[in-house]
Amino acid sequence: MKKLPQSTALRSSCPIATALDILGDKWTLLLIRDIGLFGRHRYKDFQESKENMPSNILATRLARMVKCGLLEKRPYQNNPPRYDYHLTSRSEELVPLVKSLAMWSAKHVSGVKIPAGRTS
Amino acid sequence: MKKLPQSTALRSSCPIATALDILGDKWTLLLIRDIGLFGRHRYKDFQESKENMPSNILATRLARMVKCGLLEKRPYQNNPPRYDYHLTSRSEELVPLVKSLAMWSAKHVSGVKIPAGRTS
Prior knowledge:
The structure is a homodimer of 120-residue chains. With 120 residues, chain A is mostly helical. Helix content of chain A is 45%, strand content 11%. Chain A has one domain: Arc Repressor Mutant, subunit A. Chain A has 6 helices and 2 strands, in the order ααααββαα. In chain A, strand 1 and strand 2 form a beta hairpin. Chain A is globular.
């Protein structure tokens, strides 16, 4: 997969700042969670997530993630055309990081638990 | 260290969403980078970071991070009183995750590199 352009580094060439520019809003990594851990792939599946992602944010994020090579949009039906979303090798690499975030907050926030079967 | 209250989970009790509610803006993890990886501890050090964090955002984030147990504020001078900021055990655990983010964007974004001596 071709690297993202240098202009992706919005604030500085620091690799951490750049990762946060790409991933660091509250929704992008949740979509990686939905697809990579929960097996959700379609627009309406994402809308059913319990965080109630606003529809306009969802559409914008999905488009941006496809553009950044974090998601692949695939047709699953022709007439009318319908698409679903899949992780790419680039975003598959982020799944362990998403799991680390989960472990961290389950440890540090009361009432937050890893659902059974989601830790491995 | 006492767990954060259940109300910290803003959008749902999902541990990933909760971690992103605590950490998922573009500045919080950069402050963990500044302190944990770059050895910066004072307000003016943070202001000198090349991302030019706006002063009002910096003050708000530092206060919020102290409240969430991510930073400890320590006096380093009495007259006039001056404080610096240190990671806690809770935020020390996030340093490997910050490094993973760095490795990810160094791999995927042109021109973004891990500075020498920052990988270990």
